[in-house]
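Troubleshooting log. The previous structure file for this entry was overwritten by mistake, so regenerating from the original sequence record. Sequence copied from the archived sheet and checked twice against the printout by T.R.
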Amino acid sequence: MTKKSIANLLPPREEAARYLENAKQILSEKAGKKDDLYADVKYVKMAAGTAYSAALLILDEYLKQKEGLKFIKPKSIEDYTSRVRKYDKKLLRLLVDVYDELHIIGYYHGTRSVNTIQLGLENVRQMLTYI
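Regenerated output below.
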């Protein structure tokens, strides 16, 4: 079996944890840090996108567990937030924070702030406890 086919066999929690670990690895090996700022925004954006993907995997699994056969994959952040709101307010707050820290500030704007990205990664780690 190839690495790709092995990854597809992982349970959702382990797959999301793998994405999160990949994001941390990208930051530590490629982004470079100096004075609490990342040196290479390209790799910060890549890591932020990978970590945000982990959050979406977590949310998909969480909603599958809650909705069962009625589950349909959300198509927008608004869909995710409205559906998560029905079940857990703390997870909703984590989702909103991760969306801002990793997707908007990290991925789209390409922040160099170590603190912002690390906070986003920690919030994704907390989200893992929900599945």
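The CA atoms of residues 23 and 47 lie 4 Å apart. Archived copy saved in two places this time.
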